[in-house]
Design brief:
Layout lengths: L4 E5 L5 E6 L37 E4 L1 E2 L9 H5 L4 E2 L2 H15 L3 E5 L9 H11 L6 E7 L6 H8 L7 E3 L11
Parallel strand pairs: 3-6, 6-7, 7-8
Antiparallel strand pairs: 1-2, 4-5
Bound molecules: iron/sulfur cluster.
Iron/sulfur cluster (SF4) binds next to helix 1.
C-alpha cells in the first residue's frame, strides 16, 4: 500500500528510508508465503470472456517456484520455495474449472511445468479422464530438457492439438520464459 509510506531520498538519489504515514503500519513488510497450495485452489470460477481470446483455456497453476535456480531469473528467485499442488488437488481444480467455464482446453501452468515431480502421472490421469470429452491439455511453459515423448503422447492422446511453449535458456536474455 504505497499510500501508507513516504519515501525519503538521500542527496545522491538513493532511498534514505521509508516511513509509515499512519500509526499501526509496520516499518518493514514481511513476505507471506502460501506453503500448502492445495488449501488455496483458486481461481474457482474464472471469468469467461465474451470475445474470443488468444488463450481460451482453463488455467491451473500446478506449482510455484522453480527448481532450476537460474541466476538471471527474477521469477525463479522471488517465488521460492518450490511448492507443488498434489495430483488430487490439480484434478479437482480442473474438474471444477471446466464445469464452471465450459473451456475445452486446460493449461497446466507454472514457471517450468514439466518439472513438476509428478507431471507424467498428472498428464496421464487428465488424458484418461477427459479422453471422451476431447478436452485438450497444454503446457504453456516448458523447458526442452524436461520434456519427453511419453509426455507428448499424453498431451495429444485425445486427438486435439496441444499447446506447448518451449523456453530456450540464455543468460543474456534476462527472463527467457
Ligand atoms: S529461467 Fe526458467 S528454469 Fe530458470 S529459474 Fe527461471 S523459471 Fe526456472
Amino acid at each position: 500500500m504505497p499510500k501508507f509510506y513516504d519515501v525519503e531520498y538521500l542527496p545522491d538519489g538513493r532511498i534514505g528510508r521509508v516511513v509509515p504515514t499512519i500509526s499501526g503500519v509496520p516499518w518493514r513488510v514481511s513476505k507471506h508465503t502460501v506453503m500448502d497450495l492445495d488449501e488455496w485452489p483458486y481461481p474457482k470460477q474464472p471469468l469467461v470472456p465474451l470475445a474470443e481470446t488468444v488463450h481460451e483455456r482453463m488455467s491451473v497453476e500446478i506449482f510455484r517456484g522453480c527448481t532450476r535456480g537460474c541466476r538471471f531469473c527474477q521469477a525463479g528467485m522471488i517465488t521460492r520455495p518450490v511448492r507443488e499442488r498434489s495430483i488430487t488437488g490439480i484434478g479437482e481444480m480442473v474438474e471444477r474449472g471446466l464445469k464452471a467455464t465450459g473451456f475445452e482446453e486446460v493449461g497446466l501452468l507454472s514457471l517450468s511445468s514439466a518439472d513438476h515431480t509428478e507431471i507424467a502421472d498428472i498428464a496421464k490421469g487428465l488424458a484418461d479422464r477427459y479422453e471422451e470429452d476431447k478436452v485438450g491439455l497444454s503446457l504453456p511453459s516448458t523447458r526442452v530438457d524436461a520434456f519427453n515423448i511419453d509426455l507428448a503422447n499424453e498431451l495429444t492422446r485425445n486427438g486435439r492439438r496441444s499447446g506447448l511453449t518451449f523456453a530456450p535458456r540464455a543468460a543474456a536474455s534476462g527472463s527467457a520464459r
